[in-house]
């Protein structure tokens, strides 16, 4: 603190980066691109990274992007993950609305409540993907989805930490 006062370099009064409004959306798109990595698996054990980063951003800050961006980001996710066009659009827009409603109803949240909330949302996402696959004729047992659900829930703290570091860099803190 004293050194910053002597050198004249303080963090107060610094503006965020000029590209700051677009960093959250770009990070969600980059996380959606992770599904294009050449990972070969008989069962989808890896989480939906785009959805994980979207939830992390929304739980960290409510203001980085408008709620209607969820539909556009969901469309990008649908194109890269191979979901039916409109699945992520609907799920992500509904998630943003649900999280907005929860923000209005709760007085405070701590880390554990956010983790449980993310676990419920991630489990709902995996269950809906399983249900849609069953409706389209895929004979996938639900037990095949359990590793993806557990891994998604366990990876959420890492995703939340990464998003908080990106946000600090974006705002130059």
Automatic annotation (TrEMBL):
Keyword Cell membrane set for record: yes
Subcellular location: Cell membrane
Membrane topology term: Multi-pass membrane protein
InterPro entries with a match to the protein in the record: Cell_shape_determining_MreD
Spans through the membrane: 21-46, 66-99, 111-130, 142-163
Keywords noted in UniProt: Cell membrane, Cell shape, Membrane, Transmembrane, Transmembrane helix
Family affiliation: Belongs to the MreD family.
Protein name: Rod shape-determining protein MreD
Species in which this protein is naturally found: Sphingomonas limnosediminicola
